Amino acid sequence: MGRITFFDAIKRYIKGMQPINITVNNVELSPNQILKGKCAIVTGAGSGIGFAIAKVFVNAGATVVGLGRNLTKLEDAQKRIKSDQFIPLACDVSNVEKIPEVINFVCGRCGKIDILVNCAGVKNGNDERFFEFTSQDFDDVVNVNLKGTFFWCQQIASYMIKNKIKGHILNVISIKGFIGEGSPYSVSKWGCTGLTKGLGRKLAPYGIVVNGLAPGGTKTPMAHLKDDNMLHLATPSMRLADPLEMANIALFLSSDLGNNIIGDVVISDGGQSLQYGNNRI
Question: What would the pLDDT profile of 24-34 be if each residue is shown by its tens digit?
Answer without folding.
Answer: 778 888 889 99
